[in-house]
Amino acid sequence: MMIKKEKILKDIKNRITFLIKHLSKKKLEEKLGFEEIDFSDLYFPKYTFQYISPGGNSSMSVDVKFDLENLEKFIEYLSEKIKWQNSVEGQRALMTPKLREFIKERDNYTCRICHNSTEKEPNLLLEIDHIVPISRGGKTEVENLQTLRWKCNRRKGAKLVV
Ligand SMILES: [Zn+2]
């Protein structure tokens, strides 16, 4: 552990000395962010996306350079995705059949209001309810979901409207 730490410290020291020796003061200031940085000599990683068909007899490859323009597009794409996920449609889309089944199982196929269950009443129609409705900023997350019998769900909805 100690040896490793010393090695890292020595390495950093060497690099700083190297920078001071080899760069002019102005250039060093630029590198350290004191002044406006000249972006023209920055290194941008290039990513290669490759598709190879299952049989292996055809392939496609695309190079994407992560330059400032592409980074900006990427950030825009991510923020759009996040905005959508937080929207009403996004939250509704997160409610998958798998999640519904998970919540019902967690709640033992029992309505959380009247405690009727499919065990007691095989034809009981159970629904998944957002405890805080999506329209009020509720999220499609397990903590905000509960199993309700459809009758209790309608009653709850009616109460909320008032
Ligand atoms: Zn109920």
From TrEMBL:
Keyword Transit peptide assigned: no
Signal peptide: none
Nuclease keyword on record: yes
Record's keyword terms, sorted: Endonuclease, Hydrolase, Nuclease
Superkingdom of the source species: Bacteria
A molecular function (GO) term: endonuclease activity
Residue ranges occupied by any HNH nuclease domain in the UniProt entry: 98-154
Classification via Pfam families: HNH
PANTHER family per UniProt: SLL1193 PROTEIN, TYPE IV METHYL-DIRECTED RESTRICTION ENZYME ECOKMCRA
Protein name according to UniProt: HNH endonuclease
Species, as recorded: Alkalithermobacter paradoxus
